[in-house]
Amino acid sequence: MKKFTLLVAVLMMVAFSGAGCKKQQPPPPKMPPQGAPGQPGMPGAPHSETGAPPVEKKIVVPDDVKAGWKAVKIEVEFKEKKSKKTFTVPLNSEFKVPDTDITLKVGNFLPHFSMAADQITSGSNNPENPAAQVEVFQGGKEIFHGWLFSKFPAVHPLTHDKYGMALLEGVKK
Q1: Is 69 within a domain?
Q2: Considering only CA atoms, which of 14, 162, 163, 1 is closest in space to residue 74?
């Protein structure tokens, strides 16, 4: 039993001493937030390591998706008032948020958002990964341009001192 205990102790010392000798890696560089005003390219598109502008992805909305969805429900957070309100906004339309200087422009809705090297589309008509293409204007100036994801609201969110925004769901025809 003493030999076994000694063997375990020696193995643990070797393991711990090896762990302490590893070279520390520098932290990865921080990526700029997607959808930030003035950022070139399409939000959500991968960035090139060479500094070349990202490739614009073609948005392909399948016919069954076009025929199946008419609007999205977007929740607007009023941070100062600590309140939220839900608005139903038709696809491919503009909506002025009441009592604010905010205007939403909702474009396409993809119930099963899927991104390939050259296009963004919907993998099916089922709400597997719902996403809405949204532009947000404050006082006529664009402050957000990108996709809102209902299941992943922290991916490419609107960052603003007074307002927050989240896609809740698509509205079927």
Answers
A1: yes
A2: 163
Q: How far apart are the C-alpha atoms of 88 and 74, rounded to whole Å?
A: 6
Is residue 65 within 8 A of residue 125, CB to CB? The reply is yes
Comparing CA positions, the residue from 97, 125, 94, 96 lying closest to residue 109 is 125
Q: What is the pLDDT along the chain (173 residues), one digit of tens a residue?
A: 666 565 555 555 655 555 554 445 455 444 334 443 333 334 444 444 455 566 789 999 999 999 999 999 999 999 999 999 999 999 999 999 999 999 999 999 999 999 999 999 999 999 999 999 999 999 999 999 999 999 999 988 999 999 999 999 999 99
Number of domains the chain is built from: 1
Residue 127 falls within a domain, yes or no? yes
**Which residues form the domain of 134?**
59-172
Quick one: residue 35, left, alpha or beta (phi over 0 = left, psi -120 to 50 = alpha)?
A: left
Q: How is residue 7 annotated by DSSP?
A: H
Residue 32 within any structural domain of the chain: no
What pTM, to 2 d.p., does this model score? 0.69
Is position 20 within any domain?
Answer: no
Q: What is the dihedral of CA 73, 126, 151, 144, to 10 degrees?
A: -50
